[in-house]
Amino acid sequence: MNLGKLAISLPAPFATATRCVELAQRAEREWGYEAVWLAETSGPDSFALAGAIASATERIGIGTAIVPVYNRTPAVLAMAAGTVAQLSDDRFILGLGSSSHAIIRDWHGIPFELPLTRVRDSVAVLRQALAGEKTDFRGNTLQSKNFRLGTVPSKPVPIYLAGLREKMLQAAGKIADGLIVNLFPLTATPQILAAYHAGAAKVDRDARGDEIVCRFQVAVTDDIPAARNLVRMAFGSYIAAPVYNKFFAWCGFEQEAEQVATAFTNRDRKATAEAMTDDLVDRVTILGSAEQCREQVAAFVEAGVTTPVISPLTADPRSVDATFEAFAPAHHP
Q1: Helix-helix angle 242-250:254-265, to 10 degrees
Q2: How far, in Å, CA of 163 to CA of 92, rounded?
């Protein structure tokens, strides 16, 4: 069974920053995973955690999936990425994305405007800065002049971009070194990869060998109805968010996306949960026995995902380690 380049997602449920470092060490030394990918919402700062993991490990890859381009300037992002690259001996990948209205506008108080342009402008400045050049850029959303990174990484820091719909996916194909995706049905894989490859083709770049990183929400369980309800509780607001709601509609869930958005706007939790049908939940998450979960992930790898990132979906802290162990390459060669 081909499970690709398996990685773990951190922070894990219920895990402190210290516990996350310990899990990264186990991923490298005991479980045999190839990488750790760090999500950032309201928990640990991704760069601080990445630096700690870099210092506590020797071989495992470390990436962000993702940090937003709005709440740090490109200069700050370059300093942070350069620091982790040096601490990790160039094991670091900088994964960027636009994030969402809820996080950028509501949490941080920053206008969520022109996300596609903001991502492009950020990457343009970062390419200059991480190469050790003095920045000289003026775009529609950003400008930077005369910033030079004090200590430049010995190797180029790869920049991956998160993409949802066609325009961002094509932009990623044009300007990124890899793609980060999340929460979509297997049937949407061809259209996602087609958009990414089409973007690369526009600049005469062959992206067929690029890394395609996908975070999978995984519940290893024999109680599927309970797992589905956990998904509904955890991801109702996610699917209701405008950028993700449009993405779910683009992936074939037009009716469900509309019903979730309406119910969420009306603050009707019951209707929001009911709009997330069993079919939707089962197709965008990985639920079942350990063997069933591995088979589902293998199907995504067969379709083109190169790097499945295992994110435990659980209400029980004890299940976190068990989920990672269920996919551990060292235990399931």
Answers
A1: 160
A2: 20
64, 93 Cβ separation under 8 angstroms: yes
Judged on CB neighbours under 10 Å (0-12, 13-18, 19+), 111 is exposed
Q: CA geometry: angle at 81 spanning 301 and 16, to 5°?
A: 75
63 in Cβ contact with 91 (< 8 Å):
no
Domains of the chain, with CATH numbers? 7-219+289-327 (3.20.20.30), 222-287 (no CATH)
Tell me the two tokens of residue 160: 């991956």
Tokens representing 3 are 């499970």
> What separation in angstroms does the CA of 35 have from each of 38, 60, 125, 161?
10, 5, 27, 17
Each of the 333 residues of the chain gets a pLDDT tens digit; together they read 999 999 999 999 999 999 999 999 999 999 999 999 999 999 999 999 999 999 999 999 999 999 999 999 999 999 999 999 999 999 999 999 999 988 999 999 999 999 999 999 999 999 999 999 999 999 999 999 999 999 999 999 999 999 999 999 999 999 999 999 999 999 999 999 999 999 999 999 999 999 999 999 999 999 999 999 999 999 999 999 999 999 999 999 999 999 999 999 999 999 999 999 999 999 999 999 999 999 999 999 999 999 999 999 999 998 999 999 999 999 987
Give, as one character, the DSSP assignment of residue 109. Answer: -
Find residue 132's DSSP bridge partners. none
pTM exceeds cut of 0.70: yes
Dist. CA 247–CA 253, nearest whole Å:
9
Extended strands (E) in 143-251: 143-145, 159-162, 178-182, 211-220
Query: Closest Cα partner for 312 from 303, 321, 304?
Result: 321
Two tokens, residue 255 = 């009716």
Q: Are strands 143-145 and 159-162 parallel, antiparallel or unpaired?
A: unpaired
Whether the Cβ atoms of residue 160 and residue 96 lie closer than 8 Å to each other: yes
